[in-house]
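ok trying this again, last paste got cut off
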Amino acid sequence: MEANLRVSRIGRKPVVLPSGVQAEVKAQTVTVKGKLGQLSHQVHPKVSVALEGNQILLSVEGDHRNVRALHGLSRALLQNMVVGVSTGYEKKLNLVGVGYRASVVGQSLKLEVGKSHEVLMPLPAGVTAEVSKKQDEIVLRCADKQTLGQFAADVIRQRPVEPYKGKGIRYAGQVVKLKAGKKAGRK
């Protein structure tokens, strides 16, 4: 590689396939199979993909900023697929508020979050949900990181955390800075 050619630091790292994970490359489409399922991704035409042993290697031609960005992005997406089919992803959500409850009904997540009606959210393909006994914690699991993150964001959008009392749906461990109410301004 020439000294003046800059490439993405993330993109030039190989994606290592752990034991039990197989990959296949056909016409810019990478398919990864593991114990938790199968995922595939269409890699951008400016990024070339090669499978060598138990590694997926990515390379690009050119030095344009967009090409370097695609290089790192493609590698990160493939790494997420490998981790997803081998160990999977998990997101925990907490419900904070009096009477806020969640439950799993068939293939849907039922939320009671202070609205005049119950909210039924169908689970996307591959996403599983568990609810704690107290019905105030939801654990979402999936092999596809993007699908899981989008569904978790959709659940939070049903009742985002409000800044005065801290009521709403939040990620586990999320710190919410509470604002002072009307009493703060009085003397």
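PB: full thing came through this time. Residues 10 and 76 are 8 Å apart (CA to CA).
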